[in-house]
């Protein structure tokens, strides 16, 4: 029997937290029973394209986020669903355009329309305002709902019940950091073994608050001139952050590493992980960093339910000195119980994948009965 094919609807499949979670599940799911295909809203090469194809997935790329041509998008949606009648389940991770693709899917007779909430707030400014207005209609045509946390679900699904599904990761990959990987990465980045290497993983966007992160690091660097800050990711604000690092005299101490596939080795190289975000759902990178045993310093705007391991501190935004006090006050020691704590909290991706697989198979059987 051929596997059922579930359409995952995304903005695109670059190396973000939401995308990483979907790929973690995709790798772990039994693909003889459930196969993923993908519908993007950008027509561009993406970080995970090659791997998706290698796993047997199909990718369709639309252009609406580049040309803003809504009539063309609506026509393409209708044509796509008309040409692909095999889909009985779609899983939407992109709430802003859900009012369009859910309607098109329902019109073409797709009975199971799943929505997934991955955040607890919207970007500031006009983009965030538009996203909020469009997302307010996401909930209306859904048949099933998932969220990465209670707060994420409450934000998007205020009037309907939802299921919390933790952002699972391959826990064994991140636990027990490899000393040889640590030494190699620190040598690559030019960081002495006895120098504190602080790390952050995230796209350069307003939400991730890299500007505030530099203010924090400037205070740490004033106290520990040998400290270094490792930034993994790319994004629209990267040039601005590079300019700010230069204006603060930190160009030689802030390491812009881009998007890398060896994130587990990067966590091994770090001595602490910083996440000063303005808001988050349940950040995959924080799950990874905790599982790697790192001391984690997190803004108090992030849901405290995201902490499952020892060594997580929540700190106020707007107070770089408080962060520097926490980072410089005590030795930065890894948590030896991180793997057991990650598994106990349900963050093993094998658990997440099994839950989703059972859901897809059950709902498919119900609608095909």
UniProtKB/TrEMBL annotation:
Domain Glycosyl transferase family positions: 184-309
Q: Which PANTHER family match?
A: GLYCOSYLTRANSFERASE
Q: Pfam family of this protein, just one? A: Glyco_trans_4_4
What protein name applies here?
Answer: Glycosyltransferase family 1 protein
Q: Which residues form the Glycosyltransferase subfamily 4-like N-terminal domain?
A: 16-147
Q: Which domain of life is it from?
A: Bacteria
InterPro entries named among the record's database cross-references: Glyco_trans_1, Glyco_trans_4-like_N
């Amino acid at each position: 029997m051929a596997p059922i094919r579930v359409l995952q609807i995304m903005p695109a499949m670059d190396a973000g937290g939401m995308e990483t979670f979907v790929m973690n599940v995709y790798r772990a799911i039994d693909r003889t029973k459930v196969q993923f295909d993908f519908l993007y809203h950008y027509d561009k090469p993406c970080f995970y394209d090659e791997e998706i194809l290698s796993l047997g997935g199909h990718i369709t790329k639309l252009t609406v986020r580049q040309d803003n041509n809504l009539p063309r998008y609506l026509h393409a949606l209708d044509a796509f669903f008309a040409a692909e009648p095999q889909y009985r389940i779609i899983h939407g991770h992109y709430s802003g355009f859900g009012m369009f693709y859910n309607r098109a899917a329902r019109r073409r007779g797709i009975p199971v329309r799943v929505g997934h909430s991955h955040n607890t707030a919207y970007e500031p400014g006009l983009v965030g305002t538009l996203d909020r207005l469009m997302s307010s209609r996401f909930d209306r045509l859904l048949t099933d709902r998932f969220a990465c946390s209670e707060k994420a679900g409450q934000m998007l699904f205020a009037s309907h019940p939802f299921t919390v599904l933790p952002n699972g990761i391959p826990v064994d990959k991140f636990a027990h950091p490899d000393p040889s990987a640590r030494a190699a990465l620190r040598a690559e980045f030019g960081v002495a073994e006895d120098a504190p290497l602080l790390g952050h993983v995230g796209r350069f966007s307003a939400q991730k608050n890299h500007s505030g992160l530099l203010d924090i690091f400037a205070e740490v660097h004033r106290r520990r001139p040998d400290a270094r800050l490792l930034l993994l990711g790319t994004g629209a604000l990267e040039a601005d952050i590079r300019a700010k690092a230069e204006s603060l005299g930190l160009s030689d101490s802030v390491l812009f590493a881009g998007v890398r596939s060896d994130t587990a080795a990067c966590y091994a190289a770090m001595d602490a992980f910083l996440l000063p975000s303005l808001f988050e759902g349940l950040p995959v990178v924080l799950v990874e960093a905790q599982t790697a045993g790192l001391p984690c310093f997190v803004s108090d705007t992030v849901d405290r339910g995201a902490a499952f391991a020892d060594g997580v501190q929540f700190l106020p935004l707007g107070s770089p000195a408080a962060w520097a006090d926490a980072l410089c006050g005590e030795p930065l020691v890894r948590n030896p119980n991180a793997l057991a704590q990650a598994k106990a909290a349900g963050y093993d991706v094998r658990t997440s994948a099994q839950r989703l697989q059972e859901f897809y198979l059950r709902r498919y059987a119900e609608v095909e009965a």
